[in-house]
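Many introductory courses stop at the sequence. We go one step further.
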Amino acid sequence: MELFQAKDHYILQQGERALWCSRRDGGLQLRPATDLLLAWNPICLGLVEGVIGKIQLHSDLPWWLILIRQKALVGKLPGDHEVCKVTKIAVLSLSEMEPQDLELELCKKHHFGINKPEKIIPSPDDSKFLLKTFTHIKSNVSAPNKKKVKESKEKEKLERRLLEELLKMFMDSESFYYSLTYDLTNSVQRQSAGERDPRPLWQKVDDRFFWNKYMIQDLTEIDTGCGLLDYSHYPRFCAD
């Protein structure tokens, strides 16, 4: 899935459709892939494996888009259904703030001839990634007068702490698994009993394990409205 940065949107494109994520209000919109031609100077940032959802850490702060930037195949279920584990995530502020280096896999179509150097020493806690994220948060905090300086710093501190916990939850726990083609939340027996259920998959999963349901609420509302959303890259999770 290709990730593009445009003036007012981040655009996730896969096949014939694209998900437009507003950098003004955090809204999501499903559009034809050809609409990329209408975006203002789109730049390909690289490839991502999927969308976890979006989250707002404070009502006065912008929405953050959470993406899977690296996965690991852990096995296959009968029927050749792959089960993957989330190993790295990327967070994008849905605002005018410029993104930090997300360290995404380069898109061969738009980065032809560019080789990305491998890391010699891996960083399990991704401290470099965290530092870049927090540096950009700090540099983009607006404090128009002295009375708002303290309030801005408190919000910045809250956002930094919550983002840090979010990143650690994914990168340190190694407990989040997903499949693009199989429902990991229900037993084989329950799935067999509901084979003729015409509802989309997200309405049939076990909510006890569908922990990011709120985070992809905008996506499910798009699906309810048009019935065209492809969930193959918007994974439902089963946490270990």
